[in-house]
Design brief:
Blueprint lengths: L2 E5 L7 H12 L6 E5 L1 H11 L3 H13 L2 H4 L4 H9 L9 H9 L15 E8 L5 E4 L7 H8 L9 E3 L2 E5 L8 H6 L4 E7 L13 H27 L3 E8 L13 H16 L5 E4 L8 H6 L5 H9 L1
Parallel strand pairs: 1-2, 1-7, 2-3, 7-8
Antiparallel strand pairs: 3-4, 3-6, 5-6, 8-9
Helix pairs in contact: 1-3, 1-10, 2-3
């Protein structure tokens, strides 16, 4: 058996994944490989160093130290100036680059140096629009990969590596299950920062920002749905799907609630695990509704299940 943890993107809500990871490690569930997209890549990198509770404690401390200014520095006036002067992004990413180094990620650290779980980090190659996976090459630099995977347009500029530019991996798929499948995973724990029973859009969209946000969120849901169907078509793959969300009105760019989100992530994962064995073996004999809908049945009603199928 080759066990993989797959961690989605989700901005500041990524703190919830740390709580869920603590729960899994407390249950002695450890990964052979970890796959991360965007903020999920940052969290996955801790497990790649050492999939232990001690490393999760270090991750918790990093999350408690991060501030919104570390990730999105500058005043509104500075943001406006970058916009009208034709900069590549609304925020400079040098402060974030420095923060990752301060948190222990050396610029010289390679994927081959990692002694814990095997790490894979996703990004999108800006020119071709294709998914790029860092980690297959042991000489890839971890810090470069993390900067590429978190370069969310238009907030952060593309990250350049050897003359090639990359942006946030969630642009291609926010839940990169395909990466784990292609690398031989036979059991997957998917920590998805997503609310499966989200209500459909009720209000009329107004303004450019509303339309952009809705279009982007729809695209991301469809991309995640695509990877879920890939897993559905796979043979002999056991998947534990753990959607993590908060009912608190926290913006994805607000990093001031990390401690609370870590606890909520732990509690949400614990509640899901207490529902029983959340895994479904996917093979050619699987019948009826898709496995990921079948797994949701114990704790979602018919109406919610239908909503998820539309997501």
């Amino acid at each position: 058996m080759k066990r993989a943890f797959v961690l989605s993107g989700g901005g500041s809500l990524g703190a919830m994944q740390i709580g869920a990871l603590r729960l899994l490690l407390e249950k002695n569930i450890t990964p052979d490989i970890v796959v991360g997209c965007s903020v999920g890549a940052l969290n996955a990198s801790f497990l790649a160093i050492a999939p232990t509770l001690g490393e999760i404690e270090r991750a918790e401390q990093v999350w408690r130290n991060v501030t919104t200014d570390c990730v999105y520095p500058g005043s509104k006036l500075q943001v406006f100036w970058r916009l009208i002067t034709g900069q590549d992004s609304l925020y400079d990413n040098r402060r974030f680059y420095a923060f990752l180094q301060e948190s222990g990620c050396s610029p010289s650290l390679t994927f081959g140096d990692l002694c814990g779980a095997r790490l894979y980090v996703t990004a999108m190659h800006l020119t071709t629009g294709r998914l790029h996976v860092f980690g297959d090459n042991p000489h890839d630099l971890v810090l470069d990969a993390l900067m590429a995977s978190t370069a969310l347009t238009p907030l952060h500029p593309p990250w350049e590596i050897n003359g090639e530019r990359y942006v946030d991996g969630g642009t291609v798929t926010p839940l990169p299950l395909r990466v784990a499948l292609e690398r031989g995973a036979t059991e997957i724990y998917a920590l998805h920062l997503h609310r499966p029973d989200a209500e459909p859009l009720q209000k009329r969209l107004r303004g450019v920002a509303d339309h952009i946000n809705h279009a982007v969120s729809t695209m991301l849901r469809q991309q995640a749905d695509h990877d879920l169907h890939l897993a559905e078509a796979a043979r002999r793959v056991r998947l534990h799907y753990l959607p993590l969300w908060t009912d608190d009105p926290i913006e994805l760019t607000d990093f001031s609630h990390s401690a609370t989100l870590i606890e909520q992530g732990y509690e949400r994962a614990a509640a899901l695990m207490q529902k029983g064995d959340s895994a479904t073996v996917v093979n050619s004999e699987t019948a009826g509704a898709p496995w990921w809908r079948q797994w949701m049945l114990p704790f979602l009603g018919q109406q919610r299940r239908n909503q998820m199928s539309k997501a």
